[in-house]
Amino acid sequence: MRRAMFRGFVLSLACAFSVAAGTAQAADTSVTPRTYNVWQWNVAGNTIHDGSLTDGLVDQAVDSIVNRGADFAAFNELCQNQYSAIITELRARAWPVDGNTSFARFEPSLPAGDPDVCAGSAYGNALFSRHPLGSADRVTLPTDGAAEARNLLCAPLADGSGTVFCTTHLTTDPDYKSTQLKAVFDQLATYDTPIIAGDFNVQPHHKKLNPYYAPSVNTVANDGNTGSYRELDDADSAHCPGHGESTTDAPSDNKCGIAAKIDLVFVRESTLAGPYSADSLAPSTACTGVAACSDHRVLIGTVTVQ
Q1: 165 phi and psi, to 5 degrees?
Q2: Which of 79, 81, 80, 86 shows the shortest CA–CA distance to 61?
Q3: pLDDT in tens, 71-99
Q4: pTM of structure
Q5: Could you give the CA distance from residue 172 to residue 176 in angstroms, rounded to a whole number?
C-alpha cells in the first residue's frame, strides 16, 4: 500500500511539474521581441570642454541622439551641469515619449567642488532613455588607487520587460582592468536582459575581454573567447570581423591594422532575437574652440532582444 501511495505521489508530482513547465514555456513564447537603438559617447566633457555649456557639445550630443532615433543613450566623462542641460534640451525636442519624466540618471566619479574639474560641477557617467526608467543601481568598482571612483550605472525600463540599460567607464590602469571587468560582469549577471554601453578602455582582441565575448565570436582578430556576450559591432564582415570599427584615433596592436576600439555595446547572446549591428561615427567638428567635439567617436547600434 505504501508503494502504491508513493507511486501515486510521484505521478501527481510529475503531472504538476508538466503543467508548470508547459505554463512557463507558454509565458516565454508570449513575450514580444523588442528592438532598441543604442547610442554611446565618451564626450571628454572636462578635458576638452572644461564643463562648458556654450561651446556646442550639448547641442551636438542632443542632435545626434534625436537624429539617430536612439532609445538609449550613454555618456562617459560628462559634467553634471552638461547632464542637466542635455535633459532640458531633450525635453524641448520631445525625445522622451509619453510624457516620460523619469528618463535620465547620473552617477559621479568625481564630486562637485573642484574648480579645475567641470568648472566646479561633478563628473561621471550618465544614462538617458526614451522610455521611463526604474530605480538605478549604482556600483562603485574596485579602486585603482586614483581619485576618480570608477562606477557602473544601470537602470531598468519601468515597463517590466526585464531590459536593463547600463554604462561604465573603466580604468586606464592595466593592473586593475581585470578586477573592474569582473565586477561589471558579476553585476550584469543579476539582470534578465542587460544592455551595456561604455568606454571599457580594453580592446576586443585583448584577453581581458575573453570572459565577455561568447565562443561564437571566433575570428582572426578576436579568438579564445569563453563568455556569454556579443558586442554589437562584432558581426560586421566589412570592418574587422569579430572586432569592429575604431572608436578612437589611438594606435592599436589589433590584427586589422586599425586604430583602437575601446567603446563597446554588449548584449547577452542568449537574449538575442534577431540581427544586430553597430557603426562608429566620426566626432562632430562643430564645437567652438576645439578641433573635434571629442577624442572618441559616437558608437551607435541596433539590437533585437527577447
Answers
A1: -105, 130
A2: 86
A3: 999 999 999 999 999 999 999 999 999 88
A4: 0.89
A5: 8
